[in-house]
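Can't paste images in this forum, so I'm doing it all in text. The chain is below; anyone willing to post the predicted structure tokens underneath?
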Amino acid sequence: MFLLSRIFLFLTKSADQRDQQRDDEYLAEATDIYDLEYRMKALDKRKATRYPSWMSS
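Text version of the structure:
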């Protein structure tokens, strides 16, 4: 039953919503302000390299 509910949630959320939730959970695991800053920079770097600048609208 748990697997069915996870599949249903996966199918009803958009990719952007899933990415945002994953990022929020990752940031929530930070142990202190320095770890949080490091994680924020890592997410920014990942988002900047995901799409080339010429593809942005």
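The mean pLDDT is 84. Residues 12-48 form one domain.
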